[in-house]
Amino acid sequence: MFVAFIASNAFSQDKPSKEVYYEDRNIMFWNQCANNGDCEWVSCIIPVRFIIHLDRNGFVKNDNACPQGGNAIGEITGDVYHTTGNGGASFDSNPEASVSCSRNLLHFVGPVTQVKIIANGHFTINATGETTSVIDIVFEECK
User: Fold this and answer.
1) Is the CB of residue 122 less than 8 Å from the CB of residue 143?
2) How many angstroms separate the CA atoms of 25 and 50, rounded?
3) Left if phi > 0, otherwise alpha if psi is -120 to 50, otherwise beta: which for 69?
4) What are the tens digits of pLDDT across the range 45-98?
5) Left if phi > 0, otherwise alpha if psi is -120 to 50, otherwise beta: which for 124?
6) How far is CA 24 from the centre of its chain?
7) Averaged confidence pLDDT in the chain
8) What is the pairing mode between strands 114-126 and 80-93?
9) 90 phi, psi to nearest 5 deg
10) How far, in Å, CA of 59 to CA of 98, rounded?
11) Which tens digits make up the pLDDT trace of 107-116?
12) CA 80, CA 40: separation in Å to the nearest integer?
């Protein structure tokens, strides 16, 4: 019976796995529609749940990030914005480079305005350890 447990445990090490953790993120953005068109900074600390998928070798293949509620506050008006959204990233590693692509969407719903923020990123670490990053699109829309 002990041998069967060891074999079973060793076999499970070779399978892809998943990790879940929570982390608070500080976010601040310029809301162009707030304060009757005079704009204002909106800030918050959002608890985010991350689900990370690992391959058979223990390397991260992709992740998913999902805000778990939280409210943002307008610094001038005190308006409260409820926060929702999602995001994720994929990773590809080989001897020549490590590449990550990400997409994040945050949606802030306030009493007068709604704001969507979308950011796409591409990050590469080459064989010499040099890092390049490009934020492809940062898009903010308010209604």
Assistant:
1) no
2) 12
3) left
4) 988 888 888 877 777 778 888 887 889 999 999 999 998 888 888 877 666 777
5) beta
6) 11
7) 79
8) unpaired
9) -120, 150
10) 11
11) 888 888 888 8
12) 12
Region of poorest pLDDT, from 2-6, 68-72, 103-107: 2-6
The Cα–Cα gap between 13 and 41 comes to 47
What is the Cα–Cα distance from 14 to 128, expressed in whole angstroms? 29
Q: Where do the domains of the chain lie?
A: 18-142
Cα distance between residue 131 and residue 133, in whole Å: 7
Q: What is the DSSP string of 67-100?
A: E---EEEETTT--EEEEEEEEEEEEEE-SSEEEE
Mean pLDDT of 123-134: 78
pLDDT score at 16: 74
